[in-house]
């Protein structure tokens, strides 16, 4: 008979079921007309009586033509952390990530071969620990580096390391001089030329956030750019990307002030860490070009690619459904590659993009029909986006707010909600 195949109710097409065979764990176990044992998620069945009504003509979810490509690997609960919102990193077949949780947050690992989940560190705050990990971890000579938004001696954040072999956790820098060093790390680190670069939401010379450089050998920090809170923006919260010796990023505060009742529409900026100078590459206008670019940028063939949470099509209301865009830093020209409509293509991309070959992949927090989120792909040359998976139920996941990663041809990601209500880890095969 073979192992049970997991399916879900309610569904989209008729499927014959001959008998109900009890339950196993969180799944109802049924036998179909072909003598194939299947497991049906209990969360997808409101009442036991509902299952009885489906006994002979059950409607099983097919999730369009892409059923089986998406797999929920792990379901978070309060004791395992909660609400993952940053990209995971694959280190020798194990995924590492962070969760802000409901209290101080945690770091987690998930072994892709065995399915084993662990928490190598749980944050407890205090003078010698961080609070609230934010952004993705990075691998630097076999050691994982990350940041916390708060914690340290005066609660201005920390930089930490995690040894994936021994599990040893250390705070290697504590922010405590907002003007000179920045305050409140707001995104993960970028490793470049034996240094690391990151952003703070506050601090800097003007108190509106900063770009800092961290030297892992001397464990020292220096600010390479302070935002003024004017046209260059304020409060950066996305990861940096390096291209041709310059650092680039996006922020939703700054630039033109005609969005959402007069608020700033957001910018893409360029920083020269050597000269400590910066400039605005593009200021969003709040029209078809989109606005609020609060996700990470990526570089591809000399262009920057990113997403805006709002703008573009107004099918989602007065603020729009969001866009995918490209920017040429050499000309400062922005091009909208696609604007979402929420009509079978999803809406509201909250995460950055993944390059796989010559195709870009990403996620939207709303799927087709404002469901639980989706995965899309876009050809940057043709500018045609297609939703390739629409999450059919919150049991599988909800609100994919983190970028995807690719490992051995398989995509991995997290959802901030869904599963048991506290988020999931998933895989996706195209």
Describe this structure in words.
It is a single chain. This protein has 430 residues and is mainly beta. It is 2% helix and 45% strand. The protein is built from two helices and 35 strands. The protein has helices spanning 48-53, 178-181; strands spanning 5-7, 13-15, 17-24, 27-32, 37-41, 58-60, 70-75, 89-91, 94-99, 106-111, 117-122, 130-140, 143-151, 158-162, 169-174, 183-185, 190-192, 195-202, 210-215, 220-226, 241-243, 246-251, 267-272, 277-283, 298-300, 303-308, 323-328, 333-339, 354-356, 359-364, 374-379, 384-390, 405-407, 410-415, 424-428. The strands form nine sheets. Strands 16, 17, 18, 19 and 20 form a five-stranded antiparallel sheet that branches. It has a four-stranded mixed sheet with strand order 1-5-4-3, with no helix packed on it. Residues 1-68 have low confidence and may be disordered.
How many domains? The number is: 2
> How would you name the CATH homologous superfamily of the largest domain?
YVTN repeat-like/Quinoprotein amine dehydrogenase
Q: Return the CATH architecture of the largest domain.
A: 7 Propeller
Mean pLDDT metric: 84
Proportion in helices: under 10%
Report the span from N to C terminus: 28 Å
- Please give the number of β-strands: 35
CATH class of the largest domain: Mainly Beta
Query: How is the main sheet built?
Result: 5 strands, antiparallel
CATH topology of the largest domain: Methylamine Dehydrogenase, Chain H
The rough form would be described as globular
Counted by DSSP, the helix tally is 2
Helix and strand content put the structural class at mainly beta
Strand content: 35-45%
Using the CA coordinates, give the radius of gyration.
23 Å
Low-confidence stretches: 1-68
